[in-house]
Amino acid sequence: MIAQLRPPSLDQIDALAQAVVERLPPLFRDHLRSVLLRVEDFPDDEVMRVMELESPFDILGLYSGRHVGMKGDEPTGALPDTIYLYRRPILDAWAESTDSLEDWVTHVLIHEVGHHFGLSDDDIEAIEAAPE
């Protein structure tokens, strides 16, 4: 009998992401204490519409909220800052690469943390491309 392997669950992806947060330097972890981390299979219809996505596989993660530089003047009723990781698109990217799932979760999470600190996609790409 062949054992059927199942893809990692939402909870397993969440555990990987939580482990990444725990490895961040204390200064970054402190800023993330009030940021929710949510793992969902796909972006919802509102995200699809606002981001003008053709497919729910077109986005691996999303930061929703006000970046660190905008803190202190939150409007009444503002939703908490949230980092979303989208499991199915991350699993597809992982399946098509030689990188580990942990590497993919780390990459997406750190990218979204960059947005929390006010960095644009271009800023993040420049940092990633810079020699170490």
TrEMBL record:
It comes from Glacieibacterium arshaanense. The keyword Glycosyltransferase does not apply. GO terms for molecular function: peptidase activity. Keywords: Hydrolase, Protease. It comes from the Bacteria. This is Zn-dependent protease. GO terms for biological process: proteolysis. InterPro entries: Zincin_1 (IPR010428), Zincin_1_sf (IPR038555).
